[in-house]
Amino acid sequence: MPEYKSKAYSHIFRIALVLIAAGLIGVAVRAMVLPESFGDYGHYRGSAIEDEINRPIRNGTNSSCLVCHPYIREMHLQGVHNTVSCEFCHGPVADHVQDGKVIARLPKKEGNDIKTLCLRCHNQIIRARPKESIKMISMPQHLEEKHVRIDHNCNQCHNVHAPLMWVKEARAIVGAEEDNK
Ligand code: HEC
Ligand code: HEC
Ligand code: HEC
Ligand code: HEC
Fold first, then answer.
1. 109, 123, 146: residue to mutate for ligand 4 pocket, most atoms within 8 A of CB
2. Residue ranges of domains in the chain
3. Atom of ligand 3 nearest to the CA of 83
4. Which of 31, 54, 132, 162 sits CB 3.0–4.6 Å from 75 for a disulfide?
């Protein structure tokens, strides 16, 4: 076998030079952009933990609302929505109260927005959820069953804070049995 030896190998040096330069630039850029606390505890920015701790808390529990809204409190606690968070429907307490003082009003949904809000949890279309966890309805079938116009809104029959309150009261007044559907 004849041996081939080329003298034209300068391209190897050029490639090596480019790779070394790229490596050096890489190391330099890394040193420049790497956050100071990287690696303090592991393969992440150590001060991220502090950032998260210092993030202002925006949400509270229902008890953070109930002290100032005794009328709603009474309905809410007795009604079937007692496990539902006030903030789901009204937004975070931080937009409303700070240091015990009311700084702004929380929004309350009106008109068709109420329907949208209720159906976020009660829409039959949500199929992933087991039926027995939250009772579902489909629209406009629910209103057709009740023989009302389909532009009726949920809160005309359901108290939003205690959805079965008025239904039960109405039944008691007319002495009606539960619907057996
Ligand atoms: C420090 C007492 C206080 C706390 C705590 C508080 N509220 Fe209020 N809230 C008020 C007062 C007072 C008003 C009336 C403000 C006004 O009329 O300008 C009000 C108004 C509202 C309104 C608007 C009512 C309307 O008719 O427009 C909503 C909705 C509301 N609060 C919900 C909540 C929810 C939900 C929470 C808990 C996340 C909460 N509030 C916690 C005192 C409080
Ligand atoms: C399922 C959604 C939902 C939940 C949960 C909910 N609300 Fe409401 N809330 C509404 C809607 C919708 C309105 C406005 C329409 C109405 O009052 O019928 C309203 C009205 C209000 C009002 C104005 C009072 C009034 O009679 O107009 C206050 C205050 C309030 N809510 C506070 C609360 C508090 C406090 C909680 C938790 C204990 C809570 N809400 C839980 C949907 C909800
Ligand atoms: C965050 C989710 C959520 C929202 C939003 C919500 N609900 Fe509910 N609702 C529940 C849960 C949880 C229950 C209690 C479980 C059950 O019995 O279905 C319930 C129960 C009910 C019931 C009683 C069902 C029964 O016969 O036991 C009615 C009626 C009802 N809600 C109506 C409404 C109306 C009207 C609205 C809009 C104002 C609304 N819900 C918004 C979660 C929600
Ligand atoms: C015309 C009055 C009326 C209106 C409007 C109305 N409902 Fe009802 N709803 C009722 C009555 C009455 C019942 C309970 C009786 C029953 O068992 O059928 C009921 C029952 C329910 C139930 C429990 C269903 C079950 O399987 O037991 C849910 C959830 C519900 N409504 C949600 C809503 C939502 C969400 C809206 C608005 C999109 C709404 N309703 C509008 C009268 C109404």
1. 146
2. 58-107, 109-176
3. 12
4. 162
